[in-house]
Design brief:
By secondary structure, the chain is mainly alpha-helical. It folds into two domains: 91 residues, Arc Repressor Mutant, subunit A (Orthogonal Bundle), CATH 1.10.10; 142 residues, Four Helix Bundle (Hemerythrin (Met), subunit A) (Up-down Bundle), CATH 1.20.120. Helix content is 69%, strand content 4%. The protein is elongated, with a radius of gyration of 20 Å.
Length: 254
């Protein structure tokens, strides 16, 4: 039992590294400070400067200031004339920022992150599917169908590879994009990191709903048919099945 749990833990960590490697690269200084803040290694109110890295790291004042500018834009730090640069309280953080999500994924407590993520998805994705069915953006719906067809093709040849993960992510992003609601549309981009993690976990352990294609097909068909109620129901059914399987993975990874 312990050996199986350790194996799953290794897979979860590998999935996290894969997701982090796929995101937009920041400078090493920005990435390190951001990770230290989100993980709690640097606490709210702590003063930051290039001296925290020591002379051996050779972090210049210029590179430090550039990193601080990026992190300030994410709400992680506050730069004040009299008090210097300090770590901002968590209430100031832009928690849906893709880089903050990536740091959050890498900071531990993945179980809570996944639980919160699916609770959030259930609150926004079924309404997005419902809106997409009513809005009928044929271009976005066609993108959804192409992603689904790619999933179907890969199911026979490479159902647990990176290409399948990419197609699955594109499908869900297209649902948000097809909603016609600019706030929901933005979610497709914002949720790219946790969506990729979720689907990578499925692929890494070769688990997931056995009827995953049917679940996606139900969402697609309801949206194509312009049936808002059925679209919401199908989306919620898909999320419920996936949440169960991903939760089973991470909860046995300790």
């Amino acid at each position: 039992m312990r050996q199986a749990a350790n194996s799953r833990s290794s897979v979860v960590q590998a999935a996290i590294r894969n997701v982090q490697a796929s995101r937009r690269r920041l400078s090493p200084v920005t990435d390190e400070i951001g990770s230290m803040i989100v993980s709690g290694e640097l606490k709210a109110g702590e003063v930051l400067s290039e001296r925290m890295f020591g002379d051996v790291r050779n972090v210049s004042r210029t590179s430090f200031r550039e990193a601080i500018k990026v992190l300030e834009g994410k709400g992680l730090v506050r730069a004040r004339q009299n008090t210097g640069t300090q770590v901002a309280p968590r209430s100031d953080w832009h928690l849906l920022d893709p880089e903050i999500l990536a740091w959050r994924i890498g900071s531990g407590d993945i179980e809570q992150f996944i639980e919160d993520f699916f609770a959030f998805r259930r609150s926004i994705e079924p309404p997005a599917a419902e809106a997409a069915a009513g809005f009928q953006d044929r271009v976005r719906i066609a993108e959804m169908r192409r992603a689904y067809e790619d999933m179907c093709a890969l199911e026979a040849s490479n159902p647990f590879g990176d290409e399948y993960v990419d197609a699955d992510v594109r499908f869900h992003q297209a649902v948000f994009q097809a909603s016609g609601n600019e706030f929901l549309m933005a979610m497709g981009y914002i949720l790219h990191v946790p969506l990729t993690l979720s689907f990578t976990l499925h692929s890494s352990l070769h688990v997931g709903p056995t009827n995953r294609l049917t679940l996606h097909q139900d969402v697609l068909a309801a949206i194509e048919n312009g049936d808002p109620a059925a679209s919401r129901t199908a989306s919620l059914a898909l999320l419920s099945d996936v949440a169960h399987d991903v939760g089973r993975i991470v909860n046995t990874s300790d």
